[in-house]
Amino acid sequence: MEYNLAAKRMTPNILTILEDRYLMKNKEGNIVETPDQMYLRVANHIADGKEELVYMYYRMMASGEFHPNSPTLVNAGANKGCLSACFVRSPEDDMVDIMNVVSDVVMIEKSGGGIGIGVSKIRPKGAAVNGPHGEALGPVNVLRMISFNASIITQGSFRRGAHMGQLSISHADIQDFIHCKDTFKDLQNFNISVQITDAFMEAVLADEPWFLFDPHTGEGVKSMPAKELWNEICESAYTTGDPGIAFIDRVLETQPNPQLGDIMTSNPCGEEYLEDGNSCCLGSINLSKFVVNGQWDYVALDSVVHDSVNFLNGVIDVNTFPLQSLRDINLATRRIGLGIMGWADALISLGISYDSEEAVEEARKIGSAISTSAWDASADLAAKEGPFPEWSNSAFNVQGARPVRNSSVITIAPTGTISRLADCSSGIEPLFDLVWESNILWKDDVGDRTTKMLDCAKGLREELTKYYDNTDSSVDLLEQHKHNPVELLKALGLKQHIYQTALNISPDAHLKMQAAWQENTSNAVSKTINAPNDITAEEISAIYMQAWELGCKGVTVYRSGTRELEVLAPIEKNLDEILREVEEPLENMSDWGIKEGVIPEAGNIGRPDDLQGISSKWATGHGSLLVTTNWNGKPHEVIANGGKAGGCDAAFLETIARLVSLGLQKGISYEDIAYQLNGITCCPAWHKGQLILSPSDAIAKSMNKNFSKVKKMGETETSLGTKERMITTEMGIKKCTSCNGRIIIENGCPTCQSCGLGKCD
Fold it and tell me: Residue 260 in contact with residue 277, Cβ under 8 Å?
């Protein structure tokens, strides 16, 4: 098995992002794990003691075929927080419940999650309420209160707190909501979307009046021309980039769990419409990895889809939720969101232009294949472990569908950062440009650190690399075309029409691609319709209307230059800078602790850069137990995985392992620790002919067996397998030279009672 897959594909940009946001650091801020160790840390945690899954999960992440969402990469196995990217919480029209939601939001933000907030049930600002103040806050002020608290909690976090606010088009405060971000000062950590119904769209087309209501009383507050309200939405989107639109009827028609109440909002990026308290359990497959010689490798794709579904179900099982109520709804529905990235790169490899009808048909074809495989994988899990707990009450059962483990499986997320780690284009988006700048490191500039990063289309970068390897004049080539990437394409003999970019693709082509992917997506599709600066509000109106006609669940238009700080921005820089990715390949992995033949193990803060280890699986009376013993010249730590995640057994095992590791690091010998644990009895079980008295007893046996291989300071290594030196006699008692344990005769063979070593092995 190969454990340096990530090291082989590193680029300076990938490493910069990993070092800044993902790789574990000690208290001094020094990185204590390599990229490969990060992926193995995550794989170990999600596998949850299932040894056969660890390498499979490691391989598909480290190779760049699949990535889970960022919180899983950062937090899994690191005891840092929740593995879910985002949650949704929507208050009732009651101050106590509003404050409960504010409290829940704070706890979610503390764990690193983003928040979607639906405020359609909140009575309008100024409406009568019981109490000394006598007037309601209104939905916009509720969002402001949440925004203020979130901005405080997320200071110093590895990722900005992302938020979504949604309000019904029928709400009396809808106009205040539409314009709440007009000043560019308020709610800037929120995306906002208006929930629009089919009835409203028909009223716009018919130029009919539209009535606005107080949701608390159900009474009409005022009416206005539907078209006038529609134009306000489009004008605001033109000016600020907000609001987006959620076609809520499409959402409610396809919700899998109507028995749990109407869905009130989506996650911040708009691809997950969730029951209250539910979360995003997301991961994406890099489609560019499955185009081989201009053809789809359907066999390999089907395999990674199945493995990814298993992985995301593992995330649900081991996840640590900030609140019990959130855990309950997530386990009841078991929603996962498997998506894709690298779509633009895949089309380039297929020789298909993004804005062609062929590309749209390709999206339908490959989307159907992925959806079928994912649902099949979920059905396979249901056959083994049962359907999701709310299955009997769900729309699936009512419709007579086969039992599945998850109430949703496919979600198309934007993959803004994880696509960078996988070295591919984001989500289903086209290339933003041939060369561009990314403000992906969002913290303020500090010293030599910059918020901006130079990016280059992967295909162009690869061609430049080839050119550089075979031609001495690459510098001259770049110098000649340094202000014109299109001319550079021609100089390299690349087909310009294949490298279509976001601002050069028509809104119609953007929308058709989104609609094609939506056809096979059980949840929603997150996509931005990038538009040039000179687009008009009327053209934005036409885009929104077409999105509704095509059956999209939501749509967002961003006019270039709308905001001062843009995540992606065209540049007018010399292309010479691209040579940094060509001339400075990351060939020396020694700085990252990658050693030939050494398997990097899961890391904890304060660990040495390099550890060696052995994982042993034991049968116990409490189920299977995976014990990992790690050392760096001397015993350093023990990791024990077993029992149901979040359960008492798992908690006790983690407690024992942490205390054992602390003792080892403080200089207590492993023999003394093992002596205390050895023989503790609760529910004995036989393991390969050896009686295991308890999980504690198994940990003791693992330490005695594995740590005997450690090199002692100034001493030669004691060989575990040296049969001739196995038995010594001390005061008439036969002892094991490996661990000093007592020797007994078992099946006619001298066998160590502590470590299990037998002379007859």
Answer: no
180 included as an active-site residue: no
Buried b (16+ CB within 10 A) or exposed e, 353-367: bbbbeebbebbeebb
Say whether 682 is catalytic: no
CA dist., res. 617 & res. 599, Å (int):
17
DSSP state, 335? -
Around 279, how many Cα atoms within 13 Å sit in the side-chain half-sphere? 34
Question: DSSP E strands: which ranges in 568-709?
Answer: 568-570, 612-620, 623-631, 635-641, 685-687, 690-692
- Residue of 267, 278, 286, 530 with catalytic role: 267
- Residue type for 417, please? T
Residue 617's DSSP bridge partners are 626
Identify the three-state secondary structure at position 588.
coil
Q: How far is Cα 252 from Cα 255, in angstroms, rounded to an integer?
A: 5
Quote the Cα angle for 346-351-353, to 5°: 85
Mean pLDDT, residues 200-229 = 96
The answer to whether residue 269 is catalytic is yes
Q: Tokens 């804005």: give the residue.
A: 355
pLDDT at 410 over 70: yes
Reported as a single tens digit per residue, the pLDDT across 678-737 is: 888 888 888 887 888 889 989 999 888 888 766 443 343 333 333 333 343 333 345 565
pLDDT score of 579: 52
Model pTM score: 0.76
Residue at 189: amino acid letter:
N
Backbone angles phi, psi at 545, to 5 degrees: -65, -45
Task: Identify the CA nearest to 2 among candidates 52, 43, 63.
Answer: 63
Task: Tell me the C-alpha distance between 692 and 581, whole Å.
Answer: 54
Sign of CA dihedral 404, 410, 415, 421: positive
Within 8 A by CB and 6+ apart from 409, the residues are 309, 336, 337, 338, 371, 374, 375, 377, 378, 522
Q: Which two tokens stand for residue 564?
A: 């001062």
Other C-beta atoms closer than 10 Å to the C-beta of 312 total 27
Question: Which two three-digit tokens encode residue 598?
Answer: 């050494």
Q: What's the half-sphere exposure (Cβ side, CA atoms, 13 Å) at 420?
A: 22
Confidence of residue 602 (pLDDT cuts 50, 70, 90): very low
Among the listed residues 33, 65, 271, 390, the single catalytic one is: 271
Helix (H, G, I), strand (E, B) or coil at 758: strand
Secondary structure class of 262 (helix, strand, coil): coil
The residues near 108 (Cβ < 8 Å, ≥ 6 apart) are 82, 87, 89, 115, 322, 323, 326
Copy the structure tokens of residue 114: 């983003």
Helix/strand/coil for 393: helix
**Structure letter (DSSP) for residue 350:** H
Exactly one of 82, 234, 269, 281 is catalytic; name it. 269
CB 317 within 8 A of CB 53: no
- As a whole number of angstroms, the distance between CA 21 and CA 12 comes to 14
